[in-house]
Amino acid sequence: xxxxxxxxxxxxxxNQLNKMIDADWKDKGSAWHRAVWVECAECMxxxxxxxxxxxxxxxxxxxxxxxxxxxxxxSWAIQDKENISFLVxxxxxxxxxxxxxxxxxxxxxxxxxxxxxxxxxxxxxxxWALPLVDMDIESLFKMYAxxxxxxxxxxxxGYKDGTxxxxxxxGREDNEHLTAILKAMSTIDDDFVADVYAALSDRYQVExx
Length: 209
Known about the structure:
Elements: H1 3-21, H2 32-45, H3 59-80, H4 84-88, H5 103-115, H6 119-129, H7 137-156, H8 174-183, H9 192-206
């Protein structure tokens, strides 16, 4: 599937998700740039940056944090309006350029540009970070569609009013359960979102039994 079509689908999905939370979200002027740099800090926690203690890198969770960041970059671009064409045309995803620094430095540069409210540079650094975590536009789409489904599931099960349980059975968070579900799904078809939603629901109900 063409890269710009995949991006266009993700833009539409993000708009739908945001409308689930607030029908007038585009007019609220939310600080998406702030959400991006905060997520970058969370991403660093999985990169074992604390050299003064024993830590292990969790690359799966780094990838998931990048997908969270992508949600906010999409929302920022849609709300910004002027930059949405820059994103949707997908040209940047065809570039052979990528960040020559290591992954930690790349995430830090993304955070710096987001904090400076530089949307296009933030998107650039996000895209250049993808090959450093073995991701491309296709794998980004699969993980984004999965996380989109989890976010919709959260909203349906009380995330906004505080009744949703993010910590599920066996001590793992919902993000970790999603990662396991996506690993078991090798292809993306028309039922992908519905199948992920059903799998999430099955795992979530275990806690109630």
